[in-house]
Amino acid sequence: MYICTNMKKIFYLISISAIFAACNNQPAAEATSEQAVATDSTGTTYLVDTAASILNWTGEALSYGHYGTMKLSEGSLTVKDGNLTAGSFTIDIKSIKDLDIPDPTKNAYLVGHLNDTDFFNTKLYPTGKFEVTNVASLTNDTAGNTHAISGNLTLKGITKNIVIPAKVTINGDAVEAMGTVMVNRLDWNVKYNSTTAFPNLKAKLKDKAIKDEFKVVIDLKAKKG
């Protein structure tokens, strides 16, 4: 039993290390100005299954990190001739959870802080939104992505356009889109403990400085409406 427990801890640490390593090796998506949202009145609408869909996030300081989830509250995708042409989804930011801190008090403190004005300020901005502006096919992508999905991401009332490489699968009455992107929080005015935003904090924060980029993995599942 002791060996099994230790092995579980080892595998857990390896998994966390892998998540953070992946975070370090991927550049942040370049945020550009808001673009016109894609529309398609002739395609087939698929409604996002909010119970089956999830947004995973990973954030890091220089010496540690955290990861967790957010739920989606609504969304839809449009498909025409076997291709994704439009869509959007709403992020329930107040649903944010941390999955790596076992102590309930410390976990609640972090989640409360993420909801507070230092980060997402969910009292004023309880939701975020992603609206598709363009979908381009990818070929021979080393990560297995099939499309580059451009869209307007709105957080804290700020809208910027980013590109999410994603694997899109359309199968009869179901659509799944899974994409991974690094987001620079400074583009959405989330500046807490950023030494880019506040260079004078470098000496004070040292390895507790929080990196500007955080990782988002979106697993979107939708069914024909």
CATH superfamily: Lipid/polyisoprenoid-binding, YceI-like
Q: What is the CATH class?
A: Mainly Beta
Query: Whole-Å distance between the termini?
Result: 50 Å
- What's the Cα radius of gyration? 19 Å
User: What structural class do the secondary elements suggest?
Assistant: alpha+beta
Order of helices and strands: HEEEEHEEEEHE
Q: What percent strand?
A: 35-45%
Shape: globular
CATH topology: Lipocalin
Average pLDDT figure: 91
Quantity of strands, as a count: 9
Number of domains: 1
Low-confidence stretches: 1-24
What is the level-2 CATH architecture name?
Answer: Beta Barrel
- Helical residue percent? 10-25%
In this structure, how is the largest beta sheet organized?
9 strands, antiparallel
Helix segment count? Answer: 3
Account of the 3D structure:
By secondary structure, the protein is α+β, with helices and mostly antiparallel strands. The protein has a single domain (28-224), classed as Lipid/polyisoprenoid-binding, YceI-like (Lipocalin, Beta Barrel), CATH 2.40.128.110. It has three helices and nine strands.
Fill in the keyword field for this structure.
225 residues; alpha+beta; 9 strands; Lipocalin; 3 helices; single chain; disordered N terminus
Write a brief caption for the model:
This protein has a single domain (28-224), classed as Lipocalin (Beta Barrel), CATH 2.40.128. Helices cover 18% and strands 45% of the residues.
